[in-house]
Structures are given as structure tokens and as C-alpha cells.
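Side project, low priority. Logging it here so it doesn't get lost.
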Amino acid sequence: MTQPTTIRRVPGPRPRLPEPLQTALTLAATGVPVLPLRARKAPFGNCHRCAQNTCGGRPNMKSAGPCRCPGVCHAWAAATTDPAVLTSSPWKAAWRRAVTVAYHPGGAGLTVVDLDDAAAVDWARETLPATRIVPTTRGQHWIYRGVMSSRNAVRPGVDIKSTMAYARYLGPGTGTMTALPDAVRALAVKEPPTVRPAPQSVAVPAGVGGGECPHRTPAYLERGIAMAVQRITDADTAVHATVYRAFLAVLSTHGRCSCLTDTHVTRLFTAAQAKGESVRHCADAWTNARTALGL
């Protein structure tokens, strides 16, 4: 009697993971918390347990900490490095619809300066220390080591993404990543309440520091002053806050050496007064900027 032929099933190749998920797992293995993004750079919506804000968080925005939901909820708070979570059933469904990968910079100990256009890129090249650069659709991401508060629109075309924010992953970039500079931190500093000194003649010292100037050429300072003046001149709203941030940026870069002179300060004050600021307001903003930087 002829024995029946046994047909053995030959295992085929294992199904390939969706490309965004492959990228996400690679990043997660290096300690970068990741999450999927839908079309138009949008995070996925909340799970049914979090619908209508019933969980107490702010849907798709800021919540108190990492999301504990089974699905991909609360944008940056959903970012994780756990491969078991990333490949779980609810997440797999999201990855199949994802068009790109995002990450939580603050969770990876990083800060992203998001430069949205060519003008913002030119500003960064003139103002900020070199670091790792990743090209974007219209501009660049400058990535620094260090964490700070996130803040949008710190100047035209510039956002800061670090804690409680997400950024698209657009590749490893080029250049050596450097430490987060004071010039970036200063962009997100809110002006403290104005200190009103007693009526008296106003005299503002220009030379704040006495250290050796680390800048390679005098042109570096000149460009910084010119950019601060232009920033003040271009302000259409929030003039006082703009003046303060411009002073803060100048002092964060040049305030610890002896390169600033009365002539430089006069140029800044003149630009501010042309926008309606009084001499006293200028002096207050300068003093508050020095105090914020510990000068």
C-alpha cells in the first residue's frame, strides 16, 4: 500500500516590518524615545479611554508625564524606547498608517533648534555655535546636547523643541553635536518683572565682563549687534519683550568678555527708542538681562 506523501510547509521569509517601525526600533535601541506620525506631521489620536480628555491629560499635547495608555496617545508623552511597546498590537496598527517617525528630544537629552526657512538658517550661522545639522524640507534642525524648555516662535522662523515636544526624525545629519549654548537657552527666557529704580540719571555699563575675548574677529561682535538692532527694528508687536530678548542674546554671547562698548549699547538703545521704548525701559531691560544671566 502506497504511503501518503507528507507535504511539509517550508517557512517563508519573515514579514518585513513597516519601514517607519524599522527606523523607530533602530533609534529606540540607541536610547531615543520614538513615536509614529500620520500625514502632515500629526501625532495619532487618543485611544478610546482618553477620548474627550477623560484621562485628565491634554490630548495630543502636554500632559504630566509619559503616557500609560495601550495606544499611541498624547503625542510626545507616548514616545518610548521599549521595543515590546513599539511592536505591540495597537502600535503596529499605527505604524502601518505612519508616514514618518518622530522623537522626544528632551527624553534623549537633546534640544532641537528648528529653523524653518533660509533667513532663520542664516541667523543661526551668524549667531549659534556649530553643531550637528539635519536638513529639513525648507530649513534645518540644529541639534545640541542638553535639555531645556520647549518654546515656539522665539524669533521669526525659529522654534525650540526639547522637553514636552516632538521633532521629526529626518536622518542622522552631519557635523559634531556640541553642548547646548547659553544663546539658545536665552531665546526661551521670559522677561522677569521690570525693576523700577528710583528716579535718577541712567548710566548703563557696557563692559560687563573683564575676561579675554574668545571671538575670532571683531566682525563677529559687529554682526551680533547688527542682527540685534534689526530684530528690534522689525518688531511689530511685543516690542518690550523683543528688546529684552535682543539684549539677552547679545549679553549671553558677549557679556562675559570686555568687547562690548558704550557705542554698542547706544546702538541697541537707539533702536529700541525708535520703536517707542523709553531710556528707562531700555535700562531696565538691560539690567534684567544681566541678572537673568548672572552677570
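Brief comment: The first strand starts at residue 34 and ends at 37.
Revisit when time allows.
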